[in-house]
Amino acid sequence: MTTNGECRTNGTRRPKPLLSRSCSENYEINDVDVPGTPKTPRTSTTPGHEKCTFHHDLELDHNPPTREAMLPEMSRSYRLLLESLGENPDRPGLLKTPERAAKAMLFFTKGYDQSLEEVLNDAIFDEDHDEMVVVKDIEMFSMCEHHLVPFYGKVSIGYLPCGKILGLSKLARIVEIYSRRLQVQERLTKQIAVAVTKAVQPAGVAVVVEGVHMCMVMRGVQKINSKTVTSTMLGVFRDDPKTREEFLNLVHSK
């Protein structure tokens, strides 16, 4: 590492790590909400959180109940929902549905129980490698926060290391953290990119997400074959068209 923050490999200077760069050239990383890293810690005395039962970050000074402790109330809510639909929640086919649905929802949103630091588990390694790292077609399942129905698809991540690399499986785990929450695809894409940035401080990060939204398939416009593609480009992926093109070519290659 040179004194001005640029990476040097075999006498060749590479761009500074992304967190050392001026974010005005891309977008403000701090403007993207990455649950688990709040700007100001929330406590039980924070307005609006006096009766908070669940936070994105489990390491705050008041802890949410265990997920098992939440099941009875959630089950009662699902029972009320069934009754509101005109169903009989006591008939054999629905007798255990409220509890099953509550357990399923907790599983669908298990990312709320995870933080970036916990998932990385120190799987960050010093490595003299400054060529692009790409993991593509990572399967993703999430829940639309607008309609509480699923959306699913695949995620491709690329980053340009600057002295540190991340265990490859951790990229898939980062996707899992943020997809297993109530989401919109646009925010999910940014959160993944920012998480990789925070993990290894690379010279750049690129994320492309392709998703199928059941809220468009099952309701509304009911367009079965529609797909939504979102991307976030940070650092050299945003600044350098050739780097961005290389990443996109790798992602779209068979």
TrEMBL record:
PROSITE patterns: GTP_CYCLOHYDROL_1_1, GTP_CYCLOHYDROL_1_2. InterPro entries: GTP-CH-I_C/QueF (IPR043133), GTP-CH-I_N (IPR043134), GTP_CycHdrlase_I (IPR001474), GTP_CycHdrlase_I_CS (IPR018234), GTP_CycHdrlase_I_dom (IPR020602). Keywords: GTP-binding, Hydrolase, Nucleotide-binding, Tetrahydrobiopterin biosynthesis. GO terms for molecular function: GTP binding; GTP cyclohydrolase I activity; zinc ion binding. Residues 76-251 form the GTP cyclohydrolase I domain. One of its GO terms (biological process) is tetrahydrofolate biosynthetic process. It comes from the Eukaryota. Its EC number is 3.5.4.16. It catalyses: GTP + H2O = 7,8-dihydroneopterin 3'-triphosphate + formate + H(+). It is an enzyme of class 3 (hydrolase). Residues 29-49 are annotated as: Disordered. GO terms for cellular component: cytoplasm. Pathway: Cofactor biosynthesis; 7,8-dihydroneopterin triphosphate biosynthesis; 7,8-dihydroneopterin triphosphate from GTP: step 1/1. PANTHER family: GTP CYCLOHYDROLASE 1, GTP CYCLOHYDROLASE I. Belongs to the GTP cyclohydrolase I family. Toroid-shaped homodecamer, composed of two pentamers of five dimers. This is GTP cyclohydrolase 1.
